[in-house]
Design goal:
The complex is a heterodimer of chains A (285) and B (288). By secondary structure, chain A is mainly α. Chain A has 13 helices and two strands, in the order αββαααααααααααα. Chain A has a two-stranded antiparallel ribbon with strand order 1-2. Chains A and B meet through helix 1, helix 3, helix 4, helix 5 and helix 6 of A and helix 1, helix 4, helix 5, helix 6 and helix 11 of B. Chain B: It is found in: Cell inner membrane; Cell membrane.
Chain lengths: 285, 288
Amino acid sequence: MLAPGIGLIAVFILVPMALTVALAFTKWSSQTPFSTATFIGLDNFAEIFGSSSVGRDFKGALINTALYALLSIALILPLSILFGMLIHQAQLRGANILRTILFATYMVPMIAVALVFSKLYSPSEGPFNQMLGWVGIGPQPWLSSPDTALVSVVLLNVWQQVGYFTILIIAGLTQIPPSLYDAARIDGARGLNLFGFITLPLLRRTLLFSAVIALINAVQVFEPVALITQGGPVGSTNVMTYYIRRVGIERAQGGLGSAMSVTLLLALVVTVTAVFALARREPQR
Amino acid sequence: MSARDITIAPGAASPAWKALLYLLMIGIAVASAFPLAWMVLSSLKTPAEAMQTPPVWIPATPSLDAYSKVAELINVGRSFANSALIAGVTTFGILVTSLMAGYAFSKYRFRGRDALFAITIATMFLPPIVTLIPLYRLVGSLGLNASLVGVILPNLANAFGIFLMRQFIAGVPDELLEAARLDGASEMRILFQIVAPAVAPALAALALFAFVYHWNSYLWPLTVLQGNSDNYPIVISLSRLLSYNRSAVNTNLVMAGATLAVLPPLILFVFLQRFFVRTITASGMTGQ
C-alpha cells in the first residue's frame, strides 16, 4: 500500500534532497553524471558568501527574497483576516460570491498573472498609472525602477494569493464558538475588544500556519522574475529560486547551486523554528 | 477596522455601517476581478487601441484577430494536449498513490509508522528549488530529459495528497472494513470499492487541486523540457509570445495567449469550487 507513494517520494524528493546536501561540498557540472563531482570542502560556501560577483548576487538574492517574503506576509495576513471576517462574520448578502472571486485568482497560472500585470504596470499604456492620475498621484515606474520593482512583484503575488489565505482564515473562524462572542457581549465587550480578545487569540494557530505557508510560497516566486524582469533592474528583483536555477541549471554549476539550495533551506528552517518559538513564548490569553 | 457590528447575532448592525461594509465588499470584488477583466478586454483590442495613451478600457470593435494570430505563432492545440496530458496523468497518479498511502497510514499499525508519516509531511514544506538541480540530473540519467514522462514521473505522488487522504480515511468506520474482510475481499478491493467512494468529495477536491497545480506548473517543465517545444504545455508556450511583449502594439496578442491559458483551470474551478472550500475547511489544514 505504501510502496508506490512513499517510493516515489523517496526517489524524487528525499534522494535529491540528500544529493543536494552532498553536492554542496563538491565541484560538479550539472551537465555531467554525479560521479564526476569532486569534493572541495566548504569552497562553494566561501564563494557564495565571498566578495566575488557570484557572492554579491547571491547575498542580494537572499536579501531580496527575505524582503519579498516579509512584505508578502505583512500584506497577506491582515488582508485575509479582513476579508475572512467580512465574508464569514458580517452576514452580508453575496459574501459567497466575493469568496468565489477571491479564490478564483488563486487558480490563475502565475505566468498569466505576470503577463497581465506587466501590462497593467506599463508606465504609459497601463491602467494603473492612469487610475493614479485620476486621484492626483503622479505616474509610478513600477517594474522599471530598482526602487519599486520588488514591491510591484509583491503586489501581484498578494493579488494572486490572498484568496487562498482568506479561505484558511474562514476555516479558522468557523472553529470559534459563537457562544464566546455572546458571553463577551453580555460582559459588555464591543467592537475592537471582541476582535482583540476573542477573534485574534483564537486565530493564532491558523495565522501561524498561514504565515509559514506564505513564507514557503514566497520563496518560490519565479515566473514574474524569469519572464518580465530577469532579476533587474540592477538586481532588485533577483530572488532565490531564479538565481539558484540560473547558476545550477543554466550555467550548469551544480555544486555551487546546491550550496545555495542548502543555505536557503537552512535559512528557512531557522526562520520557521524562530517563528514557532516566538509564538509559543507569547503568553496565551 | 472596527469589529463593532461584525456580529453573530443578526439585526444589531446600523444601516450606515452595513452600507459601508457592502461598499468595501464590492470594492474588494472589483479589485480582485479587475486584472482578469482587463486581460480579456485587451485581448479583444486592435493593435492601435492597445497602443493608445491613456489606455482605452473597452475596445470599440471587439475582434478575435489576436487569437488567430496567437494560433499562428504557437501550436495551441498541441500545447493544450500536452498540458492536459501532464495535468491529467499526474492527477490520476496522485489520486491512486494518495489513496493507497493514506489508507495504510490511517488504518494499518506498523513499526515506524508515525516517523515515516512525519518525514512524508516534512516534504510538503520543501520548496521545489531545493531539490531541482539533482532532480534535473537524476531524470536526465534515466534518459527522460525533454520528454513528457520526465515532466510527469517525479510528481506522481505528493505529501499533500497523502496527508489529505489520511485525514479523511480515518473517518471511515473500521467495522465497515472488517465486515468486508470477513467476506473475503482483498485489501485493494476494500480500498477502491469501499474506502474510495466513502471519501469521494475529498478525492474530487484533491483531483482539482492537483490538476490546476500541474496545469499551471512552470518551473519543472521548463527545466526538464530543455527547449523541446513539441512537448511544451501551454504555460510555457506562452513565454514564446514574450518577444512580442516588449512592444505595446502586441499587447492584445499576449493577453489573448494569457486568456487561453487561464480558461481551463478557471472553468474547472467555477464548477467544482464547493469541493475546494469544503475540503480546506475540513482537512485540518488550518493548524487546528
